[in-house]
Amino acid sequence: MNLHDRIGIDIGRKLPLEDAVAWAARHQVRFIDVQLDTGANALGTIDERRASMLRAERERHGIHLGLHTASAVNVAEYAPFVGEAVERYLEAYVNAACLLGAEWIVVHAGFHFTSDREQRMRAGRDRIERIAAYAERKGAVILLENLNKEPADAEVHYLAHTVEEWRYYVEAIRSPAFRLSFTANHAHLVPEGVAGFVDAIDFAQVAEVRLADCFRNGHEVHLKPGAGDLDFTDMFRRVEGKGFRGHYMNAFGSLDDMLAGREELVRLAGIAGIAGT
Predict the structure, then answer these.
(1) b or e along 165-194 (b: 16 or more beta carbons within 10 Å of the residue's beta carbon)?
(2) Tens of pLDDT, residues 138-172
(3) CA dist., res. 268 & res. 162, Å (int)
């Protein structure tokens, strides 16, 4: 599959599932991400009949579907009852993936409140390990995403936003149902940068690379390629040079922005000698 076809679109909550598949087919998008938290796509609205029709349409058009959990749900929760609810939420995503034939589920490590970082990390790692085991039994795959930094003086901070934190989970969870989603723009926000992450991580574990522009060591924004200072040409050179042949996922702006961005990313990859079509 050529690079152009490997660059997908994060539809998120923008369209109902049926419209998302139709839109992807119309624009020849091979990979899409959706979220199942609200509206017509909310968990609990997807029964076998609906899932069967969606699977048939998706397969007819050769579209690969992934699901994306909400980073606002704290996977590192340790409070009684609340932590159990988080686990049921993640299990529901695994069940939905099995119904829909989704090929991956992006999950997050959660967040801490500065003083309880270590306790939150342990709680989140244990929970992700249990969800990976559940996904393995069900025949699903979860991808742990490296999240974005928050301002230094913020009380709340996302976990797994540095190489060191990401490794805490990566090196402990041993399951064929556990892989990684590398968000290049999140890496660009921390001192390690894209180069540091790419050098440190075994790309055999990476199933997806997520893309948006932003500013070096800046704040969390999802800009169109060229609106920030992320060097996508160098990023493609490094990532492809590590043997990555999975899919990319555009996650910025509108659907039209992401479609146009696909063409620009192919152009930038071409500068690195990577053929787009």
Answers:
(1) bbebbbeebebebbbbbbbbbbbbbbebbb
(2) 999 999 999 999 999 999 999 999 999 999 999 99
(3) 26
Q: How far is 24 from 58, CA to CA, in rounded Å?
A: 9
109, burial (CB in 10 Å: exposed 0-12, middle 13-18, buried 19+): buried
Look at the pTM and tell me if it is higher than 0.85: yes
Structure tokens belonging to residue 49: 């009949």
d(CA 149, CA 84): 26
CATH topology of domain 3-271: TIM Barrel (3.20.20)
Distance CA 14, CA 231 (A): 28
The single residue listed with the structure tokens 């999240």 is 147
DSSP codes, the chain = --HHHHEEEEEETSS-HHHHHHHHHHTT--EEEE--SSGGG-TTS--HHHHHHHHHHHHHHT-EEEEE--TTS-TT--STTHHHHHHHHHHHHHHHHHHHT-SEEEE---EE-STTHHHHHHHHHHHHHHHHHHHHHHT--EEEEP-----TT-S-EESS-SHHHHHHHHTT---TTEEEEEEHHHHTTSTTHHHHHHHHS-GGGEEEEEE-B--TT-----BPTTSS---HHHHHHHHHHTT--SEEEE-SS-HHHHHHHHHHHHHHHHHTT----
Q: Is 220 exposed, middle or buried (0-12, 13-18, 19+ CB in 10 A)?
A: middle
Distance CA 144, CA 182 (A): 8
Q: Could you tell me which residues come within 8 angstroms of residue 88 by beta carbon, excluding any fewer than 6 positions away?
A: none
The answer to whether the CB of 211 falls within 8 A of the CB of 251 is: yes
Q: In this predicted model, which residue has the larger pLDDT, 275 or 211?
A: 211
Backbone angles phi, psi at 146, to 5 degrees: -80, 125
